């Protein structure tokens, strides 16, 4: 196992590296102090886990994450002092798997790293194209078509749609969706879910007042319509 830590603060990088070695004593750990170095090491080493700071010499963590996501679905944990919802949503939009604000407790850091690797290990193989009521999702090519027309989704919107469509016809509680799409530490942050469901509906051409695809189960969660339910 190889872990890449992109962090320009040596003391923080040392804490992260120490925490990683406590979990995985045999792991190889590399550090990068800036975006250019991080991308170079990623291309050369193809790590199994990336810990990514936002505020580092350019390109910053957001740009590095975006470039990594174009080539890999490796688990990414973002570290930053930015704790606003807007900043977190930007990270999730770019494909971050989890988001931890500084200062952080090293035990929480360890718990999040373990959780990311468990989720990565339990990912099922990508199935063939999935079509439900005019929406076709192809995980192999990461494309989404709505009645034959391509729709551009962010990484988080895409993961949300995958989970909903894989369970079409079933009511999915808020907490279960949040744990699957955002991670266990976000299981109570329903505001994230509401924002992304609204944005996903807009891109699918779904009317929030009378949803065709993503239905709200008030007080419980959401349900993607089952086959032949949509009018």
Which descriptors apply to this entry?
single chain, 231 residues, alpha/beta, Rossmann fold, Arc Repressor Mutant, subunit A, 2 domains
Would you mind describing this structure in some detail?
With 231 residues, this protein is an alpha/beta fold. It has helices spanning 10-23, 35-45, 61-69, 85-94, 106-121, 155-166, 174-181, 190-204; strands spanning 2-6, 28-32, 49-53, 76-80, 98-101, 130-132, 135-138, 143-146, 149-150, 171-173, 214-217, 221-224. It has two domains: 2-121, Response regulator (Rossmann fold, 3-Layer(aba) Sandwich), CATH 3.40.50.2300; 130-224, Winged helix-like DNA-binding domain superfamily/Winged helix DNA-binding domain (Arc Repressor Mutant, subunit A), CATH 1.10.10. Strands 2-1-3-4-5 form a five-stranded parallel sheet, with helices on both faces. A four-stranded antiparallel sheet has the order 6-7-8-9, with helices on one face. A three-stranded antiparallel sheet has the order 10-12-11. The longest helix is centred in the middle third of the chain and has 16 residues, at 106-121. The N and C termini lie far apart (49 Å). 32% of the residues are buried. The mean pLDDT is 91.
């Amino acid at each position: 196992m190889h872990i890449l830590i992109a962090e320009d603060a040596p003391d923080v990088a040392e804490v992260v590296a120490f925490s990683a070695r406590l979990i995985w004593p045999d792991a190889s750990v590399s550090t990068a102090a800036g975006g250019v170095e991080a991308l170079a090491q990623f291309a050369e080493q193809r790590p199994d886990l990336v810990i990514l700071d936002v505020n580092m010499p350019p390109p910053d963590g957001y740009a590095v994450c975006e470039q990594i996501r174009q080539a890999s679905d490796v688990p990414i944990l973002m570290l930053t002092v930015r704790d606003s919802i807007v900043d977190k949503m930007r990270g999730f939009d770019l494909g971050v798997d989890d988001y931890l604000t500084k200062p952080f407790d090293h035990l929480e850091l360890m718990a999040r790293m373990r959780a990311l690797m468990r989720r990565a290990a339990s990912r099922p193989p990508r199935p063939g194209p999935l079509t439900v009521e005019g929406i076709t999702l192809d995980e192999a090519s990461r494309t989404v078509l709505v009645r034959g027309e391509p729709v551009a989704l962010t990484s988080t919107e895409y993961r949300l749609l995958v989970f909903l469509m894989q369970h079409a016809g079933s009511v999915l509680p808020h907490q279960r969706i949040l744990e699957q799409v955002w991670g266990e530490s976000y299981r109570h942050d329903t505001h994230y879910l509401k924002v992304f469901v609204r944005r996903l509906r807009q891109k699918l051409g779904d009317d929030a007042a009378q949803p065709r695809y993503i239905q709200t189960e008030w007080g419980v969660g959401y349900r993607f319509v089952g086959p032949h339910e949509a009018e």
